[in-house]
Amino acid sequence: xxxxxxxxxxxxxxxxxxxxxxxxxxxxxxxxxxxxxxxxxxxxxxxxxxxxxxxxxxxxxxxxxxxxxxxxxxxxxxxxxxxxxxxxxxxxxxxxxxxxxxxxxxxxxxxxxxxxxxxxxxxxxxxxxxxxxxxxxxxxxxxxxxxxxxxxxxxxxxxxxxxxxxxxxxxxxxxxxxxxxxxxxxxxxxxxxxxxxxxxxxxxxxxxxxxxxxxxxxxxxxxxxxxxxxxxxxxxxxxxxxxxxxxxxxxxxxxxxxxxxxxxxxxxxxxxxxxxxxxxxxxxxxxxxxxxxxxxxxxxxxxxxxxxxxxxxxxxxxxxxxxxxxxxxxxxxxxxxxxxxxxxxxxxxxxxxxxxxxxxxxxxxxx
DNA sequence: AACGCATCCAACCGCATCTTG
DNA sequence: GCAAGATGCGGTTGGATGCGT
Length: 367
Description:
The chain is an all-alpha fold.
């Protein structure tokens, strides 16, 4: 049985609001408030509109101090970095931008910002490609002349050094999906859950599955299990996540770190790129990179970061020999939490939850 | 001027969550 | 504890507008 409609669809006006309707709604709410009941409101003031429609009209256009259009560069940066951190949680993003509505931000992102970023990304990718090609050619020339002069065969042009002075890549990388990690069925979700520090026994899983079935939940609801077992429950409770307490956290609590190492190489790569993006925008500098905690699993495939300073100076599969990512997975995650701190969310654990939820939902979404 | 296509954005819809009785 | 209703949210739609030919 479906839900009962919130209003009588046949007798409700749809489409653009007239100035008269706006005036009626505005005058009433300014004088009486919403009365805590949007559904009853249109009848009270004689509007042939659905209560939901009234609410939307008020929140997005009629309430005081609403700004429309004219997004500043700073607002662009905030939207981009929050989108990278928490995804399409427009209401949370809107809460950081006074006078902006979630609908406005969503539209702005979908119609302009996304394209703006993609255009930028393409340009920069091409520039990097051209640049790395040049450098590669130089190396080849230098190498071949060196070989000719000294007969030295140990030099390897594909050996990557830790050069943190080199400019960072500016846009998120594009990575390929490791098929082994596909989460498109119950059994692979089970695998993921089992990897969470081994805290999901077969019986636990069976129990959860039964619960899910009895509640009519689909496979995405495994997210809820994951959520309740959030390894970040023991995350340091300070209001800012520093490199020191992050390190301490991962020393004390390996499960999340293990989880990332074992199961979310894609996520690591994505978040690493996101963290680079954020640091470029000067949004967060609460931690230092450089822990050797989370090597990219052998065989991970990375594209689009040619010439970057984080050892991924080429496209294609990464071998254990050629590169590691200096713990960027957990650190990038930490930075996500930290970024939410910066946004003055009231509760630190809530922020960790947000980031963790996002981690998992994105991970699910990748498959 | 007329047409077609692209873009923008207000509004709708369905679903999830919260609240209330 | 449960069901029904209310609210909030994010994805999507479709009409208005702009622009190029």
